[in-house]
């Protein structure tokens, strides 16, 4: 059975993008990039909303750009090797290998996917993650907290959610980012 993980880089005040939709302040440096790559080695399937997929599909061809550092090429290859499921009612098609398009998010189908997976899965993008969190599907939540306050924008967690969590890992980075990773106590998700 696979573990479903939701984690993102956020501002200190809990946003993944600011009020204008900008998220350049959360671009990882090499240390953070390598850490995320290593932490994601067990992930075999990424579940994306449209906007997150459109951001992440960059990795389909990132390795072909000139003068890419090896850690970027490694992450691109790791991303390309994983399966991707994109949930969107507006996207016409996908532009990456190993990717399928689903029109609706079906919690029961995700439960089946988790149950049959021999690897971990991630749910990526705050809107899609909110649906998975509300359905009690998320097993772990990780937050890379950047040393910035943006004052509003896209929230990492929805307002109407209650979760009891158990801290399983934390890490500090040289750039001031702090990583916290929690296990969801499943009895608290409903």
From TrEMBL:
Bacterial bifunctional deaminase-reductase C-terminal domain mapped to chain residues: 3-179
Pfam annotation, one family: RibD_C
InterPro entries: DHFR-like_dom_sf, RibDG_C, Riboflavin_Biosynth_HTPR
SUPFAM superfamilies tied to this protein: Dihydrofolate reductase-like (SSF53597)
GO molecular function, one term: 5-amino-6-(5-phosphoribosylamino)uracil reductase activity
Gene Ontology biological-process annotations: riboflavin biosynthetic process
Name of the molecule in the record: Dihydrofolate reductase
Organism: Jiangella mangrovi
């Amino acid at each position: 059975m696979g573990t479903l993980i939701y984690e993102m880089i956020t501002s200190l005040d809990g946003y993944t993008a600011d009020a204008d939709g900008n998220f350049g302040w959360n671009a990882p440096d090499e240390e953070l990039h390598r850490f995320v790559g290593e932490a994601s080695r067990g992930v075999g399937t990424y579940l994306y909303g449209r906007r997150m997929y459109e951001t992440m599909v960059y990795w389909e061809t990132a390795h072909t750009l000139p003068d890419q550092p090896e850690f970027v090429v490694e992450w691109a290859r790791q991303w390309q090797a994983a399966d991707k499921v994109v949930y969107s009612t507006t996207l016409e098609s996908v532009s990456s290998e190993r990717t399928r398009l689903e029109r609706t998010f079906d919690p029961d189908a995700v439960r089946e996917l988790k149950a049959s997976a021999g690897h971990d899965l991630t749910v990526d993008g705050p809107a899609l993650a909110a649906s998975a969190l509300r359905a009690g599907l998320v097993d772990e939540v990780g937050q890379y907290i950047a040393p910035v306050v943006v004052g509003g924008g896209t929230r990492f967690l929805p307002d109407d959610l209650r979760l009891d969590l158990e801290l399983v890992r934390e890490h500090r980075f040289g750039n001031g980012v702090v990583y916290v990773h929690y296990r969801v106590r499943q009895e608290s998700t409903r």
